[in-house]
Amino acid sequence: QVQLVESGGGSVQAGGSLRLSCAASGNTGSRSSMGWFRQAPGKEREGVAGIDKLGGTVYADSAKGRFTISKDNAKNTLYLQMNSLKPEDTGMYYCAASAYWYLKALREPEFGYWGQGTQVTVSS
After folding, report:
1. In this predicted structure, what is the pLDDT of residue 31?
2. Sign of torsion, CA 77 66 7 2?
């Protein structure tokens, strides 16, 4: 079993920044790779960024150049630094864990564990 707890969401004006955190615990093998997904109101959940066991990263086109995913293995914590936020970044952000060692894309079926989410609201 893996437990994921997100924090750091909030309300910010366009152009602002937020840093999301995800505290992970439980089976290490089941969280070899980690990712951030988001779901905007009325839309399907989509991948934002992922980081694999060796530190390789993958980003959605909408996140490239603005968001940075990182992890602190000693603290078992995943981060998402979000800069230059836009209103279209608004949504519930979920942390997810995968047993896959490598990530080439953010495919939801490859992530077996999910957090409860943290809300991000960006106003214009």
Report:
1. 87
2. negative
CA–CA gap between residue 78 and residue 101 (Å, rounded)? 16
Q: What is the pLDDT of residues 45-58, one digit of tens each?
A: 999 999 999 999 99
pLDDT tens-digit series, residues 27-48: 888 889 999 999 999 999 999 9
The full 3-state SS of the chain, as one line of letters, equals CEEEEEECCEEEECCCCEEEEEEEEECHHHHCEEEEEEECCCCCCEEEEEECCCCCEEECCCCCCCEEEEEECCCCEEEEEECCCCHHHCEEEEEEEECCCCCCCCCHHHEEEECCCEEEEEEC
Share of the chain above pLDDT 90, in %: 93
How many CB atoms are located within 10 Å of the residue 12 CB? 17
Give yes or no for a contact between 33 and 2, defined as CB atoms under 8 angstroms apart.
no
pLDDT tens digits for range 9-27: 999 999 999 999 999 999 8
Q: Give the other-Cβ count within 10 Å of 51's Cβ.
A: 22
